Amino acid sequence: MAIDIKRHKKKLDGEEPEINLVPFIDILFTLLIFLVVTSSFGNVAIDHDSGTGKPNMTDSSGDAEYYLIPVANLQKVTVNGEDMSSEIQKNAIGVHAKVLDKGNIEIKTQEHAIIITTPPGMDPREAVHAPNSK
């Protein structure tokens, strides 16, 4: 029994190769879903009406009197309506622990500002300090 190579070549010459796109599309969609799920996006909508306005403190067991709050391009800090922008150093401000616990801090990133309301009886000058001054 001989193999007819000429007949086999003629059969292959008449056919065009077929590419099955279904597995290719499956892999493409899997990669797309993976990239979307693992990506982080720069602009995130923040609901300013929810929450207390205080920074999320993951470890509040420290004994520091002032905590550093950095904000990109920080330009203005007001404490109880009083401008304390002179205390800003390197886009950050030191905020007293009592303010974090009992006061209110509102960070306005679009305006590059922090608005602080101190607990009753606290002096605005005591609420914030330049990061390197204490």
Question: Can you offer a commentary on this structure?
Answer:
The model has no long low-confidence stretch (mean pLDDT 78). This protein has helices spanning 5-14, 21-38, 97-102, 124-127, and strands spanning 66-70, 76-79, 82-83, 92-96, 104-108, 113-117, 128-129. The strands form 2 sheets. Strands 3-2-6-5 form a 4-stranded mixed beta sheet. Strands 1-4-7 form a 3-stranded antiparallel beta sheet. It has 4 helices and 7 strands, in the order H-H-E-E-E-E-H-E-E-H-E. A hairpin with a 2-residue loop joins strand 2 (76-79) and strand 3 (82-83). With 134 residues, the chain is an alpha+beta fold. It has 2 domains: 5-38, no CATH class; 66-129, no CATH class.
Determine the strand fraction and express it as a percent band.
Answer: 15-25%
Morphology call: rod-shaped
Number of helices: 4
Return residue spans where pLDDT drops below 50 for at least 5 consecutive residues: none
Biggest beta sheet summary: 4 strands, mixed
When the domains are counted, the total is: 2
Give a count of the beta strands, DSSP E runs of length 2 or more: 7
> What would you call the structural class?
alpha+beta
